[in-house]
Amino acid sequence: MQAGSQAMTLSERADALEEHMMHELEHIVTKSVLFNLADGKVEMEGGAALMAKNPGKYMLMGADPRLPKMPDKPTLIDYFRCRFASTAHLLQSATHALKAGHSEKVVLACLLHDVAVVSFIRCDHGYWGAQMIEPYVDEEVSWAVRAHQALRFFPDEAAGYAYPDLYVKYFGPDYQPEPYIVDEYKRARIHRHYMTARLICVNDIYSFDPNAKVNLDDFVDIIGRNFKQPKEGLGLDNSPSAHMWRTMLWPTRFL
Length: 255
Ligand SMILES: [Fe+2]
Ligand SMILES: [Fe+2]
Hints:
By secondary structure, the protein is mainly alpha-helical.
């Protein structure tokens, strides 16, 4: 350890390491403001300052060399393998739904219900996830993914869903969902696809079993039949949510 580095806080050390790594790269890797907000900082580094700190380098305008390389025409499966930080929960939920004999649409909804959590943004993950998949799946699937955001806070004992004990542990016994979630729940309750969204909750595995055998290969055919893979590659097409997939493809592109 260098003299003086003891005086650095943990986060200063992390910043220093990150800066060091950035200098090691051929291009200047930039962070979106959202990533800084998540670190509790309302700030951004402007282009001029970055250029001054990295003489002779250009901004990164493509793939981030630190991330797994994606194929030229990525599929949903490629995102599962190279961009989703964790797939066990999704695979377990979908396996549960498959074993219970539910329709392929329900199985796909379970497989994708937390796609935003594992790959993009946690806050309002049902809304983000639904938007990501909307152009590529049946409306029943994307609607259910959106609605599970609200439904999971409200029990439906008749359908086999109690308020999760885990939520009491996570959020405390007094947690109350925001009014927009309560309103969403009321709308969802009378929607024709209510039961599909409810089945996401029922098959949502809250207690992760590390020994459960799950495999993405079990779902390749269901994905093939129910997820419209764009021929240009997922994210490289011109659907209304292609930019979201592109952002996962190239999360540190300057613009
Ligand atoms: Fe969820
Ligand atoms: Fe979940």
